[in-house]
Amino acid sequence: MNRKRGFTLIELLTVMAIIALLIGLLLPALAQARKKALLSKDQAQIKQIHTSWIAFAREYDGAFPTPGLINRLATDLGNGPVQIPGRGPEDLLANNSAHMYSACIMQNYFAPQLCLGPTEPSGFVIVKDDYDWSEYKPMDDIYWMDSNPFGVDLDGNGIGYSNASYAHTPIAGERKRKEWRDSLTSKFAVLGNRAVEDGDQDPGSTLYEQSITLEIHGGRKQWMGNIAYNDNHLEIHQTFTPEGIFFLDLSDPSGALSVPDNLFNNQTGQPNQETGDGYDIWLTLVSEISGPDGLLLTVEWD
After folding, report:
1. What angle do CA 165, 171, 176 make, to 5 degrees?
2. How far apart are alpha carbons 182 and 231 in whole angstroms?
3. Distance CA 48, CA 53 (A)
4. Is the CB of residue 280 less than 8 Å from the CB of residue 268?
5. Is 273 helix (H, G, I), strand (E, B) or coil?
6. 6 or 272: whose pLDDT is higher?
7. How far apart are the first and last CA of the chain?
8. Model confidence over 249-271: pLDDT tens digits?
9. DSSP 106
10. Distances (CA, A) of 104 to 46, 50, 70, 83, 111
C-alpha cells in the first residue's frame, strides 16, 4: 500500500525561514541597485539639458538660451519704438529660470519631462504636461507660454509650483557674460541638482538638516548631487565645496586670492543680488529678476 507523504510543519517553517533570510539579504542590494540606476538617469537628464544648451549656442553666437535676447525690448528704427524679432536691447528682466526652460522646450531642444529629476522629493515640483507648442509665434514676438506659464516656485508661494528640478547659474551679471555660453570651462559648474539654501553646510545647521534637497540622492543625512561643468562633463559631489574648485576673490586688498568655491553660495556678491565680480559658481533657480540693471534676484531653493 502506497502512503502519500507531505511536508511536515517543521520543514515548511524551515523553508520559509530560508526564503525570509534570502529576501533580507537581497533587498538592500536591490535598493542600492535602484538608487544607482536613478542616479545615472538623473545624470543623463542633466547632461542632455546641458548638451542642448551647447547646441543652442551654435546658432546664437556661442550664448546659451537667454530669454532677454530671444525676446528683446522694442527698438527705434526711425519711426518710434517697435518690437522686431532679433533686434533691440536685451530685456534683462526676462532672464529668469522659467523663461529659459520654457524657451528651450518651445523650440524642442528638450521635453518638459526632462526638467523633472527622477528622484525629485518635493511635492511642489511637477511635470508640465499641458505645454502648448502652438503658442510659439516668433513674428508675434511670442517665444514661450504666457497663458499658462512654466513655473519655478519651490516653496508654495506665488503660483505655487515648479516645473523644474535643476538649478543653474543665474543668467545675469558677470556670470552670464563669462560662463552662460559654450566656454568649455572644466572648473565652472552651470547646472545640477538643487541644494541647501545658500550652500549652508555649517555643522549642526538646522537649515541643512531640514532641507528636502538631502532626499534627492543623499537619503536625508548628507547631500549628494550631480553637477554639470561647462565642458559638458558631470561629477557626483557630496559636498558644496568640492576639491579643486576655486574662484579668484578680486576684492581682496592684497590682490587676487584663490578661495574654495561653494557651488550654491554667491560668495562675491550680496544675498539675492548678482553683484561683485561674478567669478564664483552660484547654482540656484531664479523666479524673478528686478531692478533697473536686472541684478536683483528672487531665488528658489527647496
Report:
1. 130
2. 8
3. 9
4. yes
5. strand
6. 272
7. 75
8. 877 777 677 899 999 999 988 88
9. H
10. 14, 11, 11, 21, 9
- List the grid coordinates of 244: 579643486
Report the distance separating Cα 187 and Cα 228, nearest Å.
10
Cα 52 from Cα 109, distance rounded (Å): 6
For residue 121, how many other CB atoms are within 10 A of its CB?
A: 15
Q: What's the grid cell of residue 114? A: 526632462
Query: Taking a C-beta distance cutoff of 8 angstroms, is the pair 73, 87 a contact?
Result: no
Buried b (16+ CB within 10 A) or exposed e, 204-217: eeeebeebbbbebb
- Residue reference for cell 554667491: 266
Contact 163, 104 (CB under 8 A): no
Pairing state of beta strands 189-193 and 166-168? Answer: antiparallel
**CA angle (184, 187, 193) in 5-degree steps:** 95
CA dist 118 and 89 (Å) reads 38
Instruction: Count the alpha carbons within 13 Å of 33 in the hemisphere toward its beta carbon.
Output: 5
Any residues with CB less than 8 A from the CB of 296 and at least 6 apart, and which? 272, 273, 274, 289, 290
Cα 82 from chain centroid? 35
Closest CA to 268 of 293, 236, 295, 290: 295
What mean pLDDT do residues 98-103 have? 96
Name the grid cell of 21.
533570510
Render pLDDT for 121-158 as a digit per residue (tens, 0 to 9).
Answer: 998 999 999 999 999 998 888 899 888 899 998 876 65
Distance CA 147, CA 115 (A): 20
Q: Which helix (H) or strand (E) element contains residue 259?
A: strand 257-260
Rounded average pLDDT over 223-239:
96
